UniProtKB/TrEMBL annotation:
One family name in Pfam for this protein: EF-hand_7
CDD domains: EFh
Residue ranges annotated for the EF-hand domain, each copy included: 40-75, 76-111
Keyword Coiled coil: yes
Official protein name in the record: EF-hand domain-containing protein D1
Keyword Metal-binding: yes
Length: 221
């Protein structure tokens, strides 16, 4: 900050102390004053404010505002930066408090924001728009998660169906083999039953021949 600006700031503070100048009234609760914004939005704006409050003084001074605009890709002239501060510096201390920072977004929302540099801040730090993008990303991720879950369940069902088909085919083959075994047993039994008389006849004939040979053998020579 230039020496002249520092001198002006100190002079302003001395005037407030001496009672010559009354400081602007500041709301005790930003949440209560800026009711047009949700609590989540105000918290996001506070994060942005704290990001550029480099010295953690709870104020964004001239140099911090200069650095902020450079990081946003919209560097400002010395005069433009002073105009930006003047537009929202209600207590005239030469710095931007968080409450005054919130005025940027109030004026942007009601259409009364005129300073181009402040418009850049309002556009770049649009947490409502970011919230919509975040919600969109959330629901897209959820949709992908549901789709992946449905695909997994479908694969499980297909695998179970395949195992069921294989089990049925195995049971059918087993049943078929058992049927073939019964048919073979019946066929063998039928054949044995059919040739049984022949076998008995053959056995009787063989016994008869044996007896004849034995009789001849036993005759005296």
């Amino acid at each position: 900050m230039a020496e002249s600006e520092l001198a002006q700031k100190l002079s302003r503070q001395n005037q407030i102390i001496d009672g010559d100048v009354k400081p602007a009234k500041v709301s005790q609760s930003v949440y209560a004053e800026f009711k047009e914004f949700s609590i989540r939005e105000i918290k996001e704006y506070r994060k942005t404010f704290q990001k550029y409050d480099v010295d953690h003084s709870n104020f964004i001074d001239f140099m911090e505002l200069k650095l902020m605009m450079e990081k946003l890709g919209e560097p400002q002239t010395h005069l433009a930066l002073k105009e930006m501060i003047k537009a929202i510096d209600e207590d005239n201390d030469g710095e931007i408090s968080f409450r005054e920072f919130m005025l940027i977004f109030r004026y942007a929302r009601n259409g009364t924001l005129e300073i181009e540099g402040l418009k850049t801040i309002a556009t770049t730090c649009n947490v409502a728009e970011e919230g919509v993008k975040g919600a969109k990303g959330f629901f897209e991720a959820k949709a992908q998660e549901v789709a992946a879950g449905a695909k997994f369940e479908e694969e499980i069902r297909a695998e179970q169906e395949q195992k069921k088909i294989e089990a049925e085919e195995k049971a059918e083959r087993k049943k078929s083999l058992q049927g073939e075994g019964v048919d073979v047993a019946l066929t063998v039994g039928t054949v044995c039953h059919s040739i049984q008389p022949f076998l008995l006849l053959h056995a009787g004939f063989a016994l008869f021949i044996y007896r004849i040979k034995l009789f001849v053998y036993l005759q005296p020579t």
